[in-house]
């Protein structure tokens, strides 16, 4: 509840401080005295847009500060923790507007954004003004009322979690299917390219090695002749070089003891002779292996021809580049094929979510249908109590063609003011006064089931008087037993039900007109209510009537 409201330099208010009480707080006063300005200041505190024109003195900043007791509301404590704000028994909310128009907000002296103030506002205050009756025609508001009475809050959250997953999965599936459609156009060509390379099945450096082998085979006879000639000269000629070198080596060794340098020459000559023997053996071995193989030449020509064709097609410079391209194609084809697998997985997930969503939506529908008869009856009773005995309300659940984030139906409030049997949408047929009383009836009903924040009514009694006004007062008095209610009213029947009665007045000074407010004593209340009944100078009858209303 709000325990204190401080306003400085706002509209026609220099500075006022109001200490509110628990229960029903009534604010009365002359027209133009500044009653609705209080609501404007409170709206500013709770995140309304700031306007420099609202400053009374243009060279001084405007300050609106409210002190709220938390009443151990878990949702409020959670908000403070989520926003890294101090959790204390009293919550101090302040809004400042500088002379330049700059606006700043504070929660427990910590600077906060305007959005944070607005998020906090709905947890602290339910502000109902004259034109807020239009809200009752909003299907979202109507759905919230029904779900609140049906205790559907957790079920709605569970449904919304699945609904969000379902919608996200639908988006993922559409994006994947679009990607798949584009991939299908490319996949056939990629598979064709991959098939060519896979069938070729080249190994590392194969084309380069095949080219070398082909050159060898093409010149096989000439190579073999030269190798045999080399072998003959080294080993088998009339004067084999190897034998000649060996003979010279032996002769030189005869002088190695005489001249060490000659011995070194003999050793070097031995090394040469051994190397030449190895060369002769290698030449003989290569010559034996070198044969003209026409089939092998044809095979190598085909492989090289295929390889060069694929190299040119893929702009590759080597066998290994072709193999790398083949691996890349395999990866790309695998990715495209994976899309089909992902599509199937998403479709399976979507079916599972669809089934679960249907089950959760059914729970919401069942709960809503269950409370509708009782809700209609209770609202009708309250409407009778506030002077609308012929008014009836009907709550319909209209099935939707597709699910939305709140289920598979739209909640509609229908209204019949005169027992005509013709129910139409509330927003189309109810007058301003009827909407006000209907809103009060609904909020008083909701308050029985959930802990609402402070309820503030700005002239909700517009368009009613007499017994209807008295019953509105009775309902508001009953509301005040469970929650704090603050109401601006012109009706004496409502003012008489106050637990705390505040009077707003205008006073003139050298500085101009200024708004003041004071808490009325018992006698002052009698006089104020009598003036609401009989004018500025109330008669004894008006005073007696005021006492009677207060005693009722």
Automatic annotation (TrEMBL):
Domain of life from the UniProt record: Bacteria
PANTHER family (alphabetical): DNA REPAIR PROTEIN RECN
Similarity comment text for this entry: Belongs to the RecN family.
Known function: May be involved in recombinational repair of damaged DNA.
Protein known as: DNA repair protein RecN
Record-level GO BP terms: DNA recombination; DNA repair; SOS response
Top-level taxonomy: Bacteria, Pseudomonadati, Bacteroidota, Chitinophagia, Chitinophagales
NCBIfam families recorded: recN
An MF annotation (GO) of this entry: ATP binding
Domain RecF/RecN/SMC N-terminal, chain residue ranges per copy: 1-509
Keyword DNA repair: yes
Stretches assigned to coiled coil: 166-193
Keywords (A to Z) from UniProt: ATP-binding, Coiled coil, DNA damage, DNA repair, Nucleotide-binding
Gene Ontology cellular component terms for the protein in this record: bacterial nucleoid
Gene symbol of the encoding locus: recN
Gene source species: Rhizosphaericola mali
Keyword ATP-binding: yes
Chain segments annotated as transmembrane: none
């Amino acid at each position: 509840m709000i325990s204190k409201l401080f306003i400085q330099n706002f509209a026609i208010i220099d500075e006022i401080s109001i200490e509110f009480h628990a229960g029903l707080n009534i604010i009365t006063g002359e027209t133009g005295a500044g009653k609705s300005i209080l609501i404007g200041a409170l709206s500013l505190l709770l995140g309304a847009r700031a306007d420099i024109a609202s400053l009374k003195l243009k060279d001084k900043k405007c300050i609106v500060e409210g002190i709220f007791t938390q009443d151990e509301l878990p949702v409020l404590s959670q908000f403070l923790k989520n926003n890294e704000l101090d959790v204390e028994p009293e919550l101090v909310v302040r809004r400042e507007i500088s002379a330049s128009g700059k606006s700043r907000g504070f929660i427990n002296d910590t600077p906060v954004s305007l959005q944070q103030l607005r998020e906090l506002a709905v947890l602290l205050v339910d502000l109902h003004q004259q034109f807020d009756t239009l809200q009752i025609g909003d299907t979202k508001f109507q759905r919230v009322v029904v779900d609140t009475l049906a205790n559907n809050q957790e079920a709605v959250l569970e449904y919304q979690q699945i609904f969000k997953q379902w919608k996200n999965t639908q988006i993922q599936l559409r994006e994947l299917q679009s990607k798949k459609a584009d991939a299908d156009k490319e996949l056939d060509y990629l598979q064709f390219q991959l098939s060519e390379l896979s069938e070729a099945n080249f190994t590392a450096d194969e084309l380069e090695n095949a080219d070398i082998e082909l050159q060898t085979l093409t010149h096989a006879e000439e190579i073999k002749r030269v190798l045999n000639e080399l072998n003959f000269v080294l080993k088998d000629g009339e004067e084999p070089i190897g034998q000649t070198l060996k003979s010279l080596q032996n002769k030189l060794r005869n002088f190695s003891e005489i001249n060490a340098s000659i011995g070194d020459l003999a050793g070097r000559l031995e090394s040469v002779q051994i190397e030449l023997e190895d060369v002769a053996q290698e030449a003989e071995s290569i010559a034996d292996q070198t044969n003209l193989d026409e089939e092998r030449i044809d095979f190598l020509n085909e492989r090289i021809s295929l390889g060069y064709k694929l190299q040119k097609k893929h702009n590759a410079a080597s066998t290994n580049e072709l193999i790398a391209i083949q691996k890349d194609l395999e990866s790309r084809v695998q990715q495209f094929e994976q899309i089909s697998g992902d599509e199937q997985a998403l479709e399976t997930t979507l079916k599972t979510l669809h089934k679960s969503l249907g089950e959760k939506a059914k729970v919401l529908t069942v709960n809503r249908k269950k409370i509708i008869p009782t809700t209609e009856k209770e609202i009708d009773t309250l409407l009778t109590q506030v002077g609308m005995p012929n008014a009836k309300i009907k709550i319909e659940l209209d099935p939707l063609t597709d699910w939305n984030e709140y289920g598979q139906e739209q909640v509609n409030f229908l209204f019949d003011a005169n027992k005509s049997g013709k129910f139409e949408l509330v927003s189309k047929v109810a007058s301003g006064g009827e909407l006000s009383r209907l809103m009060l009836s609904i909020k008083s009903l909701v308050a029985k089931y959930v802990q609402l924040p402070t309820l503030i009514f700005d002239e909700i009694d517009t368009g009613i008087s007499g017994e209807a006004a008295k019953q509105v007062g009775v309902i508001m008095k009953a509301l005040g037993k469970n929650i704090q209610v603050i109401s601006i009213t012109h009706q004496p029947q409502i003012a008489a039900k106050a637990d705390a009665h505040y009077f707003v007045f205008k006073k003139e000074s050298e500085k101009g007109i200024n708004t003041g407010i004071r808490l009325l004593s018992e006698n002052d209340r009698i006089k104020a209510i009598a003036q609401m009944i009989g004018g500025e100078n109330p008669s004894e009858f008006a005073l007696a009537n005021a006492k009677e209303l207060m005693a009722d």
